[in-house]
């Protein structure tokens, strides 16, 4: 194991999300429709479909956890960071208000099932994330029954504090930097091996790489006039 692999393992262990004894139970990018909502007149922007990383963590033993934390982050906007913590007490309020039939220990599996359904069957299950200007937000899990949309679950979120966001951005930056270094080291090792065993093959690979870079550059120039278009025009909202 080289130093870069050791760095990766060390960095993953100091994920700020794990502070307080939390353990990751779900970590996946899910297509979620995001909307900015005006609290005064209830108006909202047209929904934008984005890949949001959903991380679910539990504090304590998995069979009898004390708290359940959900974090929403985005790779395209490092400062997008929303968190909710559900303990036994506020879960009881959620259960009564939304007429859920499961107890707190089963809530984790319910969330994972809903998120996996949204990932695998986006035309039948999907999520909508409503954001307020004051930092509050809610996540709706929706089922498309063809003749109507049914809200299966709603969870309240808050934007993370500046300190939490700073720690998270720093962690993700350092983790990506370590991964890049690992890939670069592996590439150097492979290049050295090919150069030793088959120098002519390495020359062909370098030539192909140069040609590919030229083609990509030309494509970028041809499409640059479209870069100003908003992606919101390309995503129609499923949930009205």
Automatic annotation (TrEMBL):
Domain of life: Eukaryota
Polar residues bias locations: 225-240
Region Disordered, annotated ranges: 221-240
Pfam families: SAS-6_N (PF16531)
Domain Spindle assembly abnormal protein 6 N-terminal residues, every copy: 25-157
InterPro entries, alphabetized: SAS-6_N (IPR032396)
Identification of the protein by name: Spindle assembly abnormal protein 6 N-terminal domain-containing protein
Organism: Paramecium sonneborni
